[in-house]
Amino acid sequence: MRMKIVAGNWKMNTLPAEGAALAQDIVNAIAEVPSDVQLILAPPFTHLDRVEEVIKGSAVALSAQNCADKDKGAYTGEVSAAMLAATGCTYVILGHSERREYYHETSATLNGKMAMALVNGLRPIYCVGEKLEEREAGRHFDVVGSQIKEVLYGLTPEQIACVVVAYEPVWAIGTGKTATAEQAQEIHAFIRKTLAEKFGVLAENIPILYGGSCKPSNARELFAQNDIDGGLIGGAALKAEDFIAIARSF
Ligand code: PEP
Fold this sequence. Notes:
The chain is α/β, with parallel strands linked by helices. Helix content is 41%, strand content 15%. It is built from eleven helices and eight strands. Strands 1-2-3-4-5-6-7-8 form an eight-stranded parallel beta barrel, surrounded by six helices. Strand 6, helix 9 (181-199) and strand 7 form a beta-alpha-beta unit. Helix 1 (16-28) packs parallel to helix 2 (48-55). The longest helix has 19 residues, at 181-199. The chain is globular, with a radius of gyration of 17 Å. The two termini are 14 Å apart. It binds phosphoenolpyruvate. Phosphoenolpyruvate is lined by residues 9, 168, 173-174, 211-214, 232-236.
């Protein structure tokens, strides 16, 4: 049985007090969410402490949106995986397309981040996905396959068992355009097959989330697909009501 997960990526949104209020609204509504659905909140670094205070004792888990690829030292502006774990994070988003695109994160950087996350006991939510021109050129399987192989194939069986994958077609992120359930299932199945080629039956247990304009109106159809185990939610995660409605869509 794979975990069902709905994770909210708040990106660079909300001030700390607003983030704490949003987390509180989500905690208040958690009884409406089936108990086998893991909710995860990924606020900005500056809110982690406050959000952790709010969710402590609830079933909601805390995630960061990024971590450093180094252990510690003279890396101005970076935040280490150890710091995140000590702040109460149990997950960290890695390789989000916005980080790949705007901050030039490569597979080499992501290998370092992955290692740091795992060594510090954080579960990586590893994002993959193709750009519009790559899909239009029919290259989406190649692109996503390479993103999986270059960063996950070096992991041990114990390490891969900690990883969550998020498939996020770049053309669907924040655009209002969602992949159809069939398009999403097709590539989720491909990701699972690619993982199985390296990790065998362990691939069956790896949660693969869909991300890209997922909202209450389309979550049910997406989550009904065999290889879609939940969602990584951007815009709709900023409204407690929508986030909870998505989590009730399994
Ligand atoms: C995301 O960026 O992780 C995301 C899925 O964003 P949105 O839901 O806003 O498309």
